[in-house]
From TrEMBL, chain A:
Keywords: Lyase, Pyridoxal phosphate, Transferase. SUPFAM superfamilies: PLP-dependent transferases. One of its GO terms (molecular function) is pyridoxal phosphate binding. GO terms for biological process: cysteine metabolic process. Belongs to the class-V pyridoxal-phosphate-dependent aminotransferase family. Csd subfamily. Its cofactor is pyridoxal 5'-phosphate. Its EC number is 2.8.1.7. Signal peptide: none annotated. Catalyzes the removal of elemental sulfur and selenium atoms from L-cysteine, L-cystine, L-selenocysteine, and L-selenocystine to produce L-alanine. This is Probable cysteine desulfurase. It comes from Halarcobacter anaerophilus. Residues 15-381 form the Aminotransferase class V domain. It catalyses: (sulfur carrier)-H + L-cysteine = (sulfur carrier)-SH + L-alanine. Pfam families: Aminotran_5.
From TrEMBL, chain B:
This is Fe-S metabolism associated SufE. It comes from Halarcobacter anaerophilus. Gene3D superfamilies: 3.90.1010.10. Residues 12-130 form the Fe-S metabolism associated domain. Belongs to the SufE family.
Length: 393, 135
């Protein structure tokens, strides 16, 4: 029903089920970027001729759109980045060094693990991991025990697992953290394509946002920083466009968000991201959630009928991704054969090796859906899986 | 037969299949022909890096030539190993040292022989070159 908005589906006969890796882009997003390059390509925040003013205006419009989209209080709380990985690295480098302990969950992808290792934190030195139960649900009892023993910690958790689609109850995670004077960053890489986020209602301290997983262009994302933390954030890079005044002895920085956006940004990308958010607003999360839940349930029902399928979690509190294997069959073989049948899924560890190791597997077959996927896509997937199983058995 | 000639011969065989899926069924059949590798060789030092699947590769030197054996936990990859061993096993050490990795792109298996970081086939050829350097 919504595929007509996405040129990819007109130009490709692939059944696209790799949305957790990146989503397709609607025509309005593509047009907005082309329009920038064709009609008013100029740098932002520097020059004062009319095209430069227009570029600056459109760029800042996107900030306002995102601010309203996630219900932030101020434009200053929205910092554009390359994406979730940069947002997390930014906070890890610019804010968290004073926190003795960082708490993550066992479902994190590498972007929310490696930056902490780079800080010198590991399991014996300032990194704590909250495990999950057999259905990959967050263990709140263990979490509270860790918080009790380590008040004033920095908590960094994913909202929705890219590998398994499990939704963490971030409201509860944040409430508990605040009870123990801790600060929380939520990795929302998988969130905005599927569900509404209200940063004030959640009372989250930091939110890492992806553009390209939210129907926007690649190479763009954002970091929401609650106002009270802005003064304690130090830019981890500076240079052009961040500066108030410079002489050879010293430099003074602009206020947020400009001091955090060094160099020329991905202007077209940011403008496109704003358009993607406007597109989502037009469709509405109520619609998106209804369609997705329906397709996700159908996917699960149809997969469950396949012989020797192994799941690693139930579908309670899940959206987007469904991960599985077949007994005695390598996920790599399935990936290659499905590709030959024009079905795009992802196989492997999904940049989440620790949870794979914990489950004693090397990876999974992951089907990840978006609101434009329909029953027909699932039927084609199931047909291809059956054929692949026939060939491999 | 030179390495290039061997690649051309395999390419001819693969090109016989117009249907891509049939081509992979053929590769799966080749995998079934691969000699078994004793479990004792499935050690970390024999693992090929850069493979999404687990691949083990060992070699035996006879005079100035290297003879390879390998296996994988994925069936299609076993077929690819069969192809790689057909091309490189039994070649002279000096030849293997200077193998041009691009030669296998000729096979046209772009989905599995890609320059990306996960490409197992390229990992196998790198390992073959490493083993030749050490021999």
């Amino acid at each position: 029903m919504f595929k007509k908005d996405f040129p990819y589906f007109k130009n490709s006969d692939i059944v696209y089920l790799d949305n957790a890796a990146t989503t397709q882009k609607p025509q309005v997003v593509i047009d907005s970027q082309v329009e920038y390059y064709e009609k008013y390509c100029a740098n932002t925040h520097r020059s004062s001729f009319s095209d430069a003013n227009k570029a600056t205006q459109k760029y800042e419009d996107s900030r306002k759109i995102l601010k309203e989209f996630i219900n932030a209080s101020l434009n200053e709380e929205i910092i554009f980045t390359k994406g979730v990985s940069e947002s997390i690295n930014f906070v890890a480098s610019s804010f968290t060094r004073d926190y003795k302990t960082v708490i993550i969950s066992s479902l994190e992808h590498h972007s929310n693990i490696v930056p902490w290792h780079m800080q010198g934190r590991n399991l014996s030195q300032g990194l704590k991991v909250v495990n999950c139960d057999s259905n990959l649900n967050f263990d709140f009892e263990e979490y509270e025990n860790i918080l009790k023993e380590n008040p004033n910690s920095f908590v960094s958790v994913t909202h929705i697992s890219n590998a398994f689609g499990k939704i963490h109850d971030i409201k509860k995670i944040i409430e508990l953290a605040h009870k123990y004077e801790s600060v929380v960053m939520v990795d929302a890489a998988q969130s905005l394509a599927h569900t509404k986020i209200d940063v004030q209602e959640l009372d989250v301290d930091f939110l890492a946002i992806s553009g390209h997983k939210t129907f926007g262009p690649t190479g763009v994302g954002a970091l929401y920083v609650k106002q009270q933390h802005l003064k304690n954030m130090k830019p981890y890079q500076t240079g052009g466009a961040t500066i108030h005044e410079v002489d050879f002895n010293s430099s003074t920085l602009l206020d947020s968000p400009y001091k955090f956006e060094a160099g020329t940004q991905n202007i077209a990308g940011v403008i496109g991201f704003g358009e993607a958010l406007k597109y989502i607003t037009r469709i509405g999360y109520k619609n998106i959630e209804t369609i997705e839940k329906d397709v996700y349930n159908y996917l699960n029902e149809e997969l469950s009928k396949l012989p020797n399928i192994v799941f690693y979690n139930d579908i309670e509190n899940c959206i987007g991704s469904r991960s599985f294997n077949f007994k005695n069959i390598s996920h790599d073989d399935i990936g290659i054969l499905l590709d030959k049948m024009k079905v795009a899924i992802r196989v492997g560890h999904h940049c989440a090796q620790p949870i794979m190791k914990k489950l004693g597997i090397r990876g999974t077959i992951r089907v990840s859906t978006a609101f434009y996927n329909d029953y027909e896509d699932i039927n084609k997937l199931i047909k291809a899986l059956k054929k692949a199983l026939d060939i491999l058995n | 037969m030179t390495i290039k000639q061997k690649v051309e011969k395999i390419k001819e065989d693969l090109d016989f299949f117009e249907d891509e899926l049939q081509k992979y069924e053929y590769i799966i059949d080749l995998g079934k022909k691969l000699d078994a590798l004793d479990d004792k060789y499935k050690t970390p030092e024999n693992i090929v890096h850069g493979c999404t699947s687990q691949v083990w590769l060992i070699c035996e030197q006879k005079e100035d030539r290297l003879y390879f054996k390998g296996t994988s936990d994925a069936i299609i990859v076993k077929g690819l190993i069969y192809i790689i061993l057909e091309i490189f096993s039994g070649e002279k050490i000096e030849t293997l040292k200077s193998v041009d990795m691009d030669v296998v792109y000729e096979l046209g298996l772009s989905e599995v022989i890609t320059p990306n970081r996960q490409s197992g086939v390229i990992g196998m050829i790198k390992k073959i070159k490493e083993l030749a350097q050490k021999a």
